[in-house]
């Protein structure tokens, strides 16, 4: 049985992992040692079945003349393509010898058409999982959102709506141009080649085999972006169809940005954390519905993923059940389990509001002291 925190309960401050935490790590590895092999049948059918449904729904919306049907098809396309897109997360963790061809097929069938090639995330996500970098200013996927001003949250979320136009600009115009302009190329690589949260992050130039994968993935996405821009400009693709494509991309980005808001507690202010403290700063939302819609491909078990990052997504639910049943109710494992997306959003909002109120109170007190 999963034990959830009470909504009013605040988690303890991160501590050095003690004997209980070391035991949790040992038990987690022991209880899940038979769950680490990815199932090719599940990966291929889930990912590309979702993509096929998403593309079919998008095409259906483009030819539909009924507002209600168009809306329903757009929503279906967003949900299914969002699921297919999130396999980019699995690609960063997979042992590709166990799933040969999957990364190439994903980039051709999902990454390039949706302007989200996997190089945007590969390498970046590994830094986020690093014990030395997680939650620090060097982490590309972390900001101390719980300690920032309240307006940061809606701005952070709604910025996702600009994603289609930024991707078209990146791959359709600036990317191809940058190959002939070295200073622009350096800027593109450092600042516009990562799916990041931290705006201060600067990406290093790719090396070795990864540089080769980067080049062909970028070329494929650029060809897709240029073709879309050109055919729309020439009137071959109707503006309505172009708009629906952008709406679906924006919907995918908005869903993912909302999920990102609750993937962590965002309470670390730059200090280095242990693996167990990374776990405590992350979240599990075990209920399958509606979690399977807003956090598919295992991402509703994000804290468990930080504990056991090599587990394939289809094993996370089984692993969670085993750990929740085997570990004591008051163990560190239960500290990261939450009942819903809504509860986590309220918690994060209260944290920013409380922080802002405290700052305002201190500022008012200082002003009163100066005028006394």
Automatic annotation (TrEMBL):
Entry superkingdom: Bacteria
TM regions (residue ranges): 41-61, 67-88, 100-121, 151-169, 223-255
Annotated stretches, region: Disordered: 1-21, 352-372
Gene Ontology biological process terms from the UniProt entry: lipid metabolic process
Pfam families per record: FA_desaturase
InterPro entries in alphabetical order: FA_desaturase_dom
Annotated ranges, domain Fatty acid desaturase: 72-330
Keywords, comma-separated and alphabetical: Membrane, Transmembrane, Transmembrane helix
Name the UniProt record assigns to this protein: Fatty acid desaturase
Species of origin: Stakelama pacifica
């Amino acid at each position: 049985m999963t034990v959830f925190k009470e909504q009013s309960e605040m988690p303890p401050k991160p501590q050095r992992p003690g004997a209980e935490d070391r035991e949790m790590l040992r038990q987690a590895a022991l209880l899940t040692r038979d769950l680490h092999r990815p199932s090719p049948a599940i990966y291929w059918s889930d990912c590309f079945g979702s993509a096929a449904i998403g593309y079919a729904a998008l095409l259906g919306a483009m030819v539909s003349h009924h507002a209600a049907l168009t809306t329903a098809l757009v929503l279906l396309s967003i949900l299914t393509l969002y699921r297919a897109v999130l396999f980019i997360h699995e690609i960063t963790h997979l042992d590709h010898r166990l799933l040969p061809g999957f990364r190439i097929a994903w980039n051709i069938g999902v990454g390039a058409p949706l302007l989200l090639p996997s190089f945007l995330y590969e390498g970046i996500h590994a830094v986020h999982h690093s014990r030395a970098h997680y939650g620090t200013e060097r982490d590309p996927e972390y900001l101390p959102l719980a300690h920032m001003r309240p307006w940061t949250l809606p701005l952070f979320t709604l910025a996702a709506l600009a994603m289609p136009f930024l991707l078209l600009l990146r791959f359709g115009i600036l990317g191809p141009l940058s190959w002939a302009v070295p200073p622009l190329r350096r800027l593109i690589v450092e600042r516009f080649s990562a799916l990041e949260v931290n705006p201060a992050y600067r990406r290093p130039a790719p090396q070795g085999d990864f540089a080769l994968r980067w080049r062909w993935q970028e070329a494929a996405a650029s060809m897709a972006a240029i073709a879309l821009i050109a055919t729309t400009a020439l009137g071959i693709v109707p503006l309505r169809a172009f708009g629906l494509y952008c709406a679906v991309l924006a919907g995918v980005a908005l869903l993912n940005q909302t999920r990102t808001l609750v993937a962590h507690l965002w309470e670390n202010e730059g200090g280095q954390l242990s693996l167990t403290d990374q776990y405590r700063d992350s979240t599990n939302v075990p209920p399958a519905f509606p979690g399977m819609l807003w956090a598919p491909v295992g991402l509703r078990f994000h804290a468990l993923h930080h504990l056991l990052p090599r587990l394939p997504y289809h094993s996370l639910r089984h692993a969670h059940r085993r750990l929740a049943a085997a570990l004591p109710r008051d163990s560190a494992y239960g500290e990261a389990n939450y009942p819903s997306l809504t509860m986590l959003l309220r918690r994060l909002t209260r944290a920013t509001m409380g922080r802002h109120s405290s700052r305002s109170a201190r500022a008012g007190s200082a002003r009163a002291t100066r005028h006394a």
